[in-house]
Amino acid sequence: MTDQKKDLYDILREVVELITPLSEEDKTKTIRWACEQLGINVANFGFTSGIQPETPRDTPSASLAQPATQQSTPKDIKTFITEKSPVSDNHLAATVAYFYQFEAAEKKDAISKDDLVDATRKIGQGGRLKRADQTLVNATNAGYLDNISRGLYRLNSVGENLVVMALPNTDGSARVAKKRKKKTGKVKHTKTKAKK
Fold first, then answer.
1. What pTM, to 2 d.p., does this model score?
2. pLDDT tens sequence across 134-172
3. Could you read off the pLDDT of 39-57 as tens digits, one per residue?
4. Which domain holds residue 115?
5. Is 37 inside a domain boundary?
6. Domain-embedded: residue 196
7. Residue 77: which residues within 8 A CB-CB, separation 6 or more?
């Protein structure tokens, strides 16, 4: 009965914990085999995170040519970020890291503050981040990125799952949280002069 009360993220955390000790190749095989057992076609997900469906031996390669052509066309960063519609700066940093790691024509294993600033400029939000370097630190503290060297940050599995599974945020919870934060500002104290 307790298993039925687990939400999607509880199950996801358990799956991630189970496969984390495996090698990259075994992680990919495990996820692919699980999808096959569940009858899920990985090619329909619309993202390329290293999981490639195996070509059945009795299937001619011509029948798989169409999906491969669709996946090989990279999206531009503006289209990708618009589709994911990250509300918070931490989510934006994870989305940019995901784009460069999996979607960009010229892939990058890690991003820097310059990549983040360039991405905001390309999506028409050049002044969105006051300090891009601090945004990357905040996204790391939130658990979406790993700091791999001075000024370089790599998307981790939590950040990848956020971008793939949770964005775009359709329930508006991130937007509500942001609005609440703005409303709770400092209280202005006014001094009253005492009459003598």
1. 0.54
2. 999 999 999 999 999 999 999 999 999 999 999 987 655
3. 776 655 544 444 444 444 4
4. 77-170
5. yes
6. no
7. 96, 99, 104, 119, 122, 123
Other Cβ atoms closer than 10 A to 139: 27
Does the structure show a pLDDT above 70 at 19?
A: yes
What is the three-class DSSP state of 78?
A: helix
The SS3 assignment for 158 reads helix
Please state at what angle helix 89-98 crosses helix 77-84, rounded to 10 degrees: 130
Amino acid at 7: D
Residue 149: its H or E element: strand 145-149
| Distance (Å, whole) CA 36 – CA 130 | 45
Asked if residue 2 has pLDDT above 90, the reply is: no
Q: d(Cα 116, Cα 96) in Å, to the nearest integer?
A: 7
One-letter amino acid for residue 188 of the chain: K
Residue 195 lies in a domain: no
